[in-house]
Amino acid sequence: MSSEAKGAHGAEGEGFEPKIIVFCCNWCSYAGADLAGVSRLQMPPYFRVIRVMCSARVDPEFVLRAFKKGADGILVAGCHPADCHYIGGNYRTRRRIALLKMLIQQFGYDPDRLRLEWISAGEGEKFQKTITEFTETINELGPTPMRGGG
Amino acid sequence: MRMNRKARIEAARRTVEGERVRWLLGKKGQLTTTGNVFGEAITDARYGFIVQKAAAVELERNSLLVQMERSPRTVHELHDATGISKPEIVRHIIALKKWRLIEQAGMKGQSPQYTALPRKTGAGEVN
Q1: Which helix (H) or strand (E) holds B105?
Q2: Ranges of chain B whose pLDDT falls below 50
Q3: Do B51 and B24 form a contact (C-beta atoms < 8 A)?
Q4: Does B63 touch chain A (CB under 8 A)?
Q5: How close A28 gets to chain B, by Cα (Å)?
Q6: What's this model's pTM, rounded to 2 decimal places?
Q7: pLDDT tens for residues A8-49?
Q8: I need a surface site. Which of A91, A117, B95, B100 has the fewest CB within 10 A?
Q9: Plot region of A146 (φ>0 → left; ψ -120 to 50 → alpha; else → beta)
Q10: How far are the Cα atoms of A7, A61, A106, B10 from residue B4, in angstroms, in the given order?
Q11: Angle between helices B44-70 and B5-17 (to 10 degrees)
């Protein structure tokens, strides 16, 4: 567990409700999220889905803005490598997320607060698992440093 | 006085928005497979190293710029605010002056004060 996570437990109250932003690509992950919904798979309700046409549409600025506004965790979900509707958008996303993970560490955020996942339209179950795991990770880390966390 | 988190996030935002980092991120395929105009390709590991280093340098420069936009600052004040070493700050100041992003605004005792020149594009400012 990182130093941020260790420090966070003090700030983590009983009623900590994480704010998680999920960017879903229109062609795969959003359909996967939809499938998870219509299949009535149970998920923690602390995430907000933002649909984008491609995971590469997620400008690093969106992520930084969300963190600045107090998001506890950000999940970017896109098509599997080589499945991108726009040929290579998800490869770009992978590079950007790697860079962002490095940058957010510089201002005291745990890199685990940002996650990239490949979820296809048929993987409703994977979407549910990812959301559940990610929510658990964020619960462990506690509130974002912007909201008084460690 | 250390930089607050919002200022750091703003510096990070400018870093990812900056031409240098965006260009490097966009050219990965070309740089690691077909190579540059001389046909020189680099390995993935080397590419990763270059991107990380460029981002780290840009982050430092943007942190300094964020400080100098608030008010004119000396090297000592910039060191206190950002924690970047003084020789490194001097190197950044030379580069920033060369690109006309900052200028000398006066003297504070024996130390020159620098201030950031108005940015051409301020549209993406995070509030």
Answers
A1: strand B102-108
A2: 1, 123, 126-127
A3: yes
A4: no
A5: 23
A6: 0.82
A7: 444 444 678 999 999 999 999 999 999 999 999 999 999 999
A8: B100
A9: alpha
A10: 18, 18, 12, 10
A11: 130
Is the predicted ipTM greater than 0.90, yes or no? no
Phi/psi for A86 (5° steps) reads -105, 35
Cα-based angle B118, B124, B127 (whole degrees, multiple of 5) = 95
- Residues of chain A found within 8 Å of residue B51, distances taken between Cβ atoms: 95, 99
DSSP assignment, residue B18? S
Pairing state between β B111-116 and B102-108: antiparallel
Task: Determine the distance in angstroms separating the CA of B46 from the nearest CA of chain A, rounded to an integer.
Answer: 14
Average pLDDT estimate for A105-131: 94
The rounded mean pLDDT for chain A is 89
Given an 8 Å threshold on Cβ–Cβ distance, is A64 in contact with B126?
Answer: yes
Whole-angstrom distance, CA of residue A141 vs CA of residue B4: 21
Q: What is the pLDDT of residues A107-116, one digit of tens each?
A: 889 999 999 9
Question: Given an 8 Å threshold on Cβ–Cβ distance, is A61 in contact with B124?
Answer: yes
Q: A84 or B120: which carries more pLDDT confidence?
A: A84
CA dist B118 and B68 (Å) reads 11
Residue A117's φ and ψ, nearest 5 degrees, are: -140, 145
Q: What is the pLDDT of residue B50?
A: 93
Using the predicted structure, report yes or no on whether residue A73 has a pLDDT greater than 80.
yes
Given this model, what pLDDT does residue A16 score? 87
